[in-house]
Amino acid sequence: MFDLGRSFLAAVERRPDDIAITQGEFRRSYTQWFDDIQCAARGLEVLGLNKGDRLLVVMQNRWQMATLHWACQFAGIVVTPLNWRATAEELEYCINDAQIRALVYDESAAEAVRGCEAASRLPRVAVGDIDDQQAISFEQLCEEAPEQTILRASPDDISLMLYTSGTTSKPKGVPRRHRAERAAAVAHVAQNMYSQGERTLGVMPLYHTMGVRSLLSMALIDGCFVCVPKFDVEETLEAIEREQISNLYLVPTLYHMLIEHPAFSPERVRSVEKIGFAGAPMSAGLMARVEQAFRPKLFVNHYGSSEIYTFTIDQHAISKPGSSGRGGLNQRIRVVSMDATSPSQAVAPMEEGQIIADLGSDEAFEGYWNRPDADAKSLRDGWYFTGDTGYFDPDGDLFVTGRVDDMIITGGENVSPAEIENCLSLHPQVEEVAVVGLPDEQWGQVITAYIKAREPIEDASLDKYCLEAGLARFKRPRRYVFVEEIPKSPVGKVLRRMLRPQHTNTANTANAS
């Protein structure tokens, strides 16, 4: 199997003059970008990094970040990208945990870097106009080309280390080998039916597996990666029009923001033929609106994680809203009982349980970075226990219902937030909805729906809608809270933990009968 450096070199040799990357007026052919990448790889080695060392990159989706990602693949350096919104404390933790050897950052992370003592002791590269007297510029890093092509990695070397979002504990490092990253990129190409010369929007962050997948997959098909450093609806629409983007791979939140913006029109996105989403469920209501807005030839739902890229794929997402489809090209999945300790404890169709995935997958990681406690919890008998809940329907399609920790237990009954959210999302006055269980003396937890409304709605109207839509009486919300925004992570996941303590005393209680 090729390592990733050789994979990119193959694209250079196939189509040297094709455009590989753009950002506004900036454009590079595969040959030109390869030269940039090689200069960056040499610069990193001059900076003192050797094969296997970790490079921390804290930047928005600039062409320089994409260049550094590929430079590390050639040099055998482990690129370790971190959210550019990270605090100084989070930087400190990552630097110490990963034993980082050097840091590259841009203006978005400058304040955090200035406040981080561990960062002050590292060799640093500053991208853009940053007052850091001890740092070299990106231009200085790349000022000399190597005497011969740098190509030091093997398929078994570590390509990158992603950090999971630490919602209940410290973030966990997820090391991934070249072979796993390449297998995931090949599967991404196949599962999205990408063809030679596709053009994708590089707006999903390169510290997230979705951004990395978009970057790598384009090189495999001699495609073009169009950088948008930070999501902005008008800039994104302009990039789609200007570069004639052929496919989009975004979280549902970004689709929502695009189609709800006054600047959106179907004519502006008519070049987009293939749509994919991941990172969070897409409600039935949003899915219908996206289908109407884009009219794509392919509408793909991806379900996966940083640890094992793809669990399941549904290439006909619109035909069965809520379904995550079936196992991906490189995966086997099961649903086991909620308290299962073994992968053999599978449940029957339509019975909700915990979703697990086969660690024998070509795309799988092999364990967390220096976290035997996390390995013991999640890796059992060759299977990865995802912590997600779901069930198989009679057709064999998977429905993901949430997280084990998100399950609502009300009056002794287990209730999935996803089912209620899907129902309410179809109400014409509901723009967005998130459902959680709040502590309640009588019920244990009371089902509470947080709603961002298009216009004022009466609680009774929503309650009636749920019942008429066929939602079981015990599953309908007993409280409705109307909010300006649903809190989400930088990659669009609903932050239920921020809803639970919030607004508890302002909720309206619907008829509990």
TrEMBL record:
Every AMP-dependent synthetase/ligase domain range: 10-369
Matches recorded under InterPro entries: AMP-bd_C, AMP-bd_C_sf, AMP-binding_CS, AMP-dep_synth/lig_dom, ANL_N_sf
GO molecular function, one term: medium-chain fatty acid-CoA ligase activity
GO biological process terms held by the UniProt record: fatty acid metabolic process
Keyword Oxidoreductase: no
Xref: PROSITE patterns: AMP_BINDING (PS00455)
Keyword terms of this UniProt record: Ligase
Residue ranges occupied by any AMP-binding enzyme C-terminal domain in the UniProt entry: 419-493
PANTHER family membership: ACYL-COA SYNTHETASE (PTHR43201), MEDIUM-CHAIN ACYL-COA LIGASE ACSF2, MITOCHONDRIAL (PTHR43201:SF5)
Family: Belongs to the ATP-dependent AMP-binding enzyme family.
Protein name: 2-furoate---CoA ligase
